[in-house]
Automatic annotation (TrEMBL):
Location within or outside the cell: Cytoplasm
Gene name per UniProt: htpG
Protein name: Chaperone protein HtpG
Record-annotated Histidine kinase/HSP90-like ATPase domain positions: 27-184
Protein's organism: Chlorobium phaeovibrioides
Listed SUPFAM superfamilies: ATPase domain of HSP90 chaperone/DNA topoisomerase II/histidine kinase, HSP90 C-terminal domain, Ribosomal protein S5 domain 2-like
Pfam families membership: HATPase_c_3 (PF13589), HSP90 (PF00183)
Keywords: ATP-binding, Chaperone, Cytoplasm, Nucleotide-binding, Stress response
Annotated function: Molecular chaperone. Has ATPase activity.
PANTHER family for this protein: HEAT SHOCK PROTEIN 90 FAMILY MEMBER (PTHR11528)
Segments for region (A): 1-327
Keyword Nucleotide-binding: yes
The keyword Nucleus belongs to this UniProt entry's keyword annotation: no
Amino acid sequence: NAPVQEFEYKAEMKQLLDLIVHSLYTHPEIFLRELVSNAADALSKARFSSLTDGGLMAAAGEDAIHITLDKEKLLFVIEDSGIGMSEDELIANLGTVAKSGTLGFMQSLQEQKKELDGNLIGQFGVGFYSVFMVTENVTVETRSAQEGSEGLRWQSSGQGTYTIEKIEKNERGTRISFTLKEEYKEFAEEYRVEQVIKKYSNFVDFPIYLGEKQLNSVTALWQRPKSELQEGDVHEFYKFISNDFEDPLDYLSVSVEGAVSFKALLFLPQNAPMELLYRQGELENKGPQLYVKKVMIQNECRDLLPEYLRFIAGVVDTEDLSLNVSREVVQSSPVMAKIRQILTTKILGWFEELAVEQPEKFKTFYKAFGPIVKIGLNTDFTNRDKLIELLRFESTKTGEGEFVTLKEYVARMGGEQKEIYYHSGAGRAQLLANPNLEYFQSRGIEVLLLSDPVDVFVIPSIHEYDSKPLKSIEKADIDFSKETTEGEEPVAENLLVPLLAKFREALGEDIADVVESHRLVSSPVTIVGGKDAMDSQMERMMKMMQQ
Ligand code: ADP
Ligand code: MG
């Protein structure tokens, strides 16, 4: 008899399990989605590896997921013929937390009394452990598809230790079995399992069988012509691939034939993903799924879209890449570059169309993703002009939360006005209270109000639009007309000169100069920046970042 080895979870793992089981989950049914998703991943890896690796053990039957229930004994079994796991993989995958920072993140959620909904669990690589919500003891029997592998049994009660022993297992793949807690006996009922599978796993691209019956509809939606797509299906598909609970804001179906051929189904989420809010920079790991001839090659392919569009979810399927390509080859392939270029153009065109045809949707999109898209102005020079047209600003002539485009601004500016004016700061109210606005307000000159923190980094780089320079109203070199308001006496030269000298003397090194101003209406003084000086909002941002 082979010995049973006992292992201890890392301390971090214990805390994580405790959090998952006792505080964070509110939807126990999620365990089913997570187990199915792992089984599908394992099948997908096997399908992909078999194309590149000759030594792989073949599956006994169809590539599929089988669920078996025993209502009397409350037994639940899920089995796949996927890639399986070796002993090292069992320890690495089921005994440790994969992503660093996960525990801290979960704890912060708990402190904020936030629920760990299904939306998040999959994103943080802790899906497997959700099974401990519905059972006290889990058995994983697995055999890796790699040559020379052996059968293994992993067992744990999620309490601090797990065991691994060798077993007899003839076929590759993984079988996970457990007895349900009495309170979750519903998951031993066929109707309930079918319901949950239909809800979360309908688009898994391997058949899922409950006994003899197939529960999911395996269809590659992105292969269908646009006219055949049903909105309900498309929305469900989006939720399935993105782990989002909400419908997408909009979707785009793309079919390209030519120098490269591909089909794509792309989605605009309603909201920016949690990662974007909680984990800055994590977005670099997002992107649509890449399929080659209906085989998934990469789950989150960075190379399909430029970074500033990587919040777009979906599937891209091409015939023009070879199946046995490595990640590096995909990355540097001219086919990918071509696909990225075409997709970018299509997506920017899609945004443009939304702006014209569905302005409310566009506004929702812009509020959620505007700050990310703007970054493209500094990185994607080919599409700069298109991106500039997408920009939206509040201004002194819009209401709060209403937008104006640069085109509209230029169309309504007076004949005299030669420049486009903007004012940047932390928020509308603060911006409107600034004395530098007085001149513009009193003469009815529109000023764009920039309150998105990204604005100061990207807007000044536009320099001009429609041959009109963009200028911060804080700058000293604005050409104010000298005419005084009616009934107002100009200050006599012999008073002004000594007065300015007094100011210069008092302020000394702290300032560059004191000059007579024609920009003020009711305030006596204001501070402005020199021609080449940094915008004050920019200066504040730089200081904040240095801290
Ligand atoms: P994630 O799926 O996000 O990586 P999970 O906690 O769901 O996180 O699973 C952890 C890891 O365990 C997986 O990445 C995979 O390597 C391994 N695993 C889980 N289930 C299976 C399975 N059925 N077959 C093979 N490997 C599996
Ligand atoms: Mg998983």
